[in-house]
Write a structure and sequence with these properties.
alpha/beta; FAD/NAD(P)-binding domain; seven-stranded mixed beta sheet; 32% helix; binds 1,4-dihydronicotinamide adenine dinucleotide
């Protein structure tokens, strides 16, 4: 029997693509060697959000006095936090399974190994069986980058250093944590451990945290967490790890810091080897599988979605890429609009952004204007955030006044950024915002307020 589509990998790209293909009537097989849901569900997005919710509740209770609420003794039970995480993952895993079942997708719990291609299609071996598919969607995801730092491999092997893959089964709060890499994972973990009482040090190679986010917002996030007691070492390179001791070099000199737990969050890289991809000889570039905006690789019938193509490495991008791949398989012309993909850091406050920053606009030679407003223009923000220092920034094209970017640091940012993404995706001129009614009082109103400040309303 020949499948219309074989999907390799059951993470967000794989399961969403397979379910969509099944629903559209394609005979679809999904191969997953571990658990359905991938890194996102088992050791990424979802576990971290259950942990961070516990941290948020603790922080709210601790800060209650400013709002007239006094809590007695507060205690975080890490075993209970992890148990709840397991429950949430179980519920959502069942949901993924049902989604695939309802779509008529055949799921095989085995590692798929590409054997090559013949006139009937792509041949993929899984266990004792060999399957054939007219189309093949590679959704194998990514793995943590392990920089060539002496002692790192040994520490990972011994369990003294953890990546997100090993972290979320922790059963106690460590007294101290060193986070290597102040990007997205690093900051979310710094947020958790600083809230639950660990002494946290973040070591970051660059002069700022948060990667590509707006530099002013990165600065506000930095100040927030410095005030909460996080020790940041910027412009600092980890040079060796010896047991619990992390050695580093910085412009101000070399040093070392000891911690009970060391977290490695120095980026992720596409998983391209170990499953026979090379037999098909697709175009690769800088360690990623090259795809166009329709998810097509250089091999006809071979598609790639999610982290494996190295383009955006976010679960929601993976969903969209998978949708586009299925559309292409069905003869459509859908494309991913990579300029309108929101990104979120689930710290407290949250950081969310979509589209161009002032810096990326300058690099692209775009003529833009930046509008900045304090979150204190939002009534709900003031009511709910004692002493909050959030901001909202809009990047607007000077000529046609199209919205090109929105950048926020505030609670609820993650929940309101999709609206900004929609406006950017549709090329909405800022003046059109006047016609949109925002519920009051909400934090989302800040976008309309910023447009008002810009003078477009
Ligand atoms: P990242 O690329 O966000 O950050 C890695 C950081 O480590 C960078 O700032 C880099 O300069 C630093 N670094 C690298 N080598 C270093 C060294 N030797 N010493 C000190 N610093 C070093 O990668 P991260 O945080 O590991 O996340 C991986 C992927 O997962 C990213 O693509 C991210 O977007 C995604 N992710 C997304 C989340 C979200 O959407 N909220 C949550 C967690 C992860």
């Amino acid at each position: 029997m020949v499948y219309d589509l074989i999907v390799l990998g059951g993470g967000p790209a794989g399961y969403h693509g397979a379910a969509l293909a099944g629903r559209k009537g394609l005979r679809t097989l999904l191969l997953e060697q571990k658990a359905l849901g991938g890194v996102c569900l088992h050791s990424g997005c979802i576990p971290s959000k259950t942990w961070l919710q516990a941290a948020k509740i603790l922080t709210h209770a601790r800060n209650g006095t400013a709002y007239g609420v006094k809590a007695a003794e507060l205690h975080l039970d890490q075993q209970a936090v992890t148990a709840r995480k397991n429950k949430v993952v179980r519920i959502l895993s069942a949901g993924v399974k049902t989604k695939l079942q309802n779509a008529g997708v055949e799921v095989v719990a085995a590692k798929g190994e590409i054997q090559g291609r013949d006139e009937s299609g792509f041949r993929v071996k899984a266990g004792a069986h060999c399957y054939t598919g007219k189309n093949l969607l590679v959704a194998t995801g990514s793995v943590p980058v392990i920089p060539p730092i002496p002692g790192l491999e040994a520490g990972l092997g011994a369990g003294t250093i953890k990546t997100n893959a090993e972290l979320f089964d922790l059963d106690h709060v460590p007294a101290s944590v060193v986070v290597i890499g102040g990007g997205v994972i690093g900051m979310e973990m710094a947020a958790y451990f600083s809230a639950v009482g660990s002494k946290v040090t973040v070591i970051e190679l660059l002069d700022r945290i948060g990667g590509e986010i707006d530099p002013e917002i990165a600065g506000i996030l930095y100040d927030n967490y410095r005030k909460k007691g996080v020790d940041f070492k910027l412009n600092t390179r980890v040079t060796a790890v010896d047991g619990q001791r992390v050695q580093f070099a910085s412009p101000t000199g070399d040093g070392a810091v000891e911690a009970e737990l060391i977290i490695l969050s120095a980026g992720r890289r596409p998983l391209l080897s170990g499953f026979g991809l090379e037999t098909l000889r697709p175009q690769m570039e800088n360690g990623r599988l090259v795809v166009d905006r329709g998810g097509r690789t250089s091999v006809p019938g071979l598609y790639a979605a999610g982290d494996v193509n190295g383009r955006s490495m976010l679960a929601h991008t993976a969903y969209r890429e998978a949708e586009v791949c299925i559309d292409c398989i069905l003869g459509g012309t859908a494309e991913v609009n990579y300029e309108a993909i929101p990104a979120v850091i689930y710290t407290d406050p949250e950081v969310a952004s979509v589209g161009e920053t002032a810096e990326s606009s300058a690099r692209k030679g775009l003529d833009v204007q930046t509008v900045k407003v304090s979150m204190r223009y939002s009534g709900r923000y003031v009511a709910e955030h004692e002493g909050g220092d959030g901001i909202c920034k809009l990047i607007v094209a000077r000529g046609d006044r199209r919205l090109l970017g929105v950048h926020l640091i505030t609670e609820y940012a993650s929940e309101l950024i999709y609206g900004a993404g929609l406006m950017i995706d549709r090329g909405l001129p800022l003046d059109e915002l006047e016609k949109v009614v925002f519920p009051h009082p909400t934090v989302s109103e800040i976008i309309k307020e910023a447009a008002f400040q810009y003078g477009s309303i």
